[in-house]
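Bug report (template v2)

What were you trying to do?
Predict the complex of my protein with guanosine-5'-diphosphate.

What happened?
Run completed; filing so the output is reviewed.

Input:
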Amino acid sequence: MGDAFDEDCDYLFKAVLIGDSGVGKSNLLSRFAKDEFRLDSKPTIGVEFAYRNIKVADKIIKAQIWDTAGQERFRAITSSYYRGALGALLVYDITRRETYESVRKWLQELREFGSEHMVVVLVGNKCDLGQSREVEKEEGKGFAENERLFFMETSALQNVNVEEAFMQMITKIHHQTGQKCL
Ligand code: GDP
């Protein structure tokens, strides 16, 4: 996943991916971090993270994005996963309604363990599978508006809106606050 501290940057942000197992979190992350889609990805145990440097205005931001790496399967996400995170992508699968029903629970957890002003983007992934859709776009969007989250439908498979979802979170964090690079 790349060398963590090999380049200079102005800010370092931590952000987390959260959501039910199988919604596409690790594929979204690898798409964003490496423009790569892992077709046969198998969840491994233990948290993983990836870095990417992004230039916003004249600042270099190093985004450190954490992935559950399958731990959510065992309800084993702990408070340390959320500690210090300034943003989150809360992901569901538009073709599996139960993953959308879980969003409320993940949001509660984020609000319990995450920082107060965490920037949260609600992400309906797998929008390439429109024929199997179980959650309407308007529904996700409406929920996000009520909860004051950002919203985006994505496809990690077809690389639709992946960059936009991460960038929305990162630029919003950048506007809110910053941490010195380690
Ligand atoms: P995670 O458990 O949330 O990290 O989910 P993964 O990234 O491991 O993906 C779970 C499964 O969904 C894998 O079989 C992926 O190939 C598939 N997948 C992930 N994103 C997409 C997508 O945007 N479209 C489609 N059709 N499949 C996807």
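What did the reviewer find?
The longest strand covers residues 48-56. Residues 21-27, 39, 41, 43, 125-126, 128-129, 155-157 surround guanosine-5'-diphosphate (CB under 6 Å).
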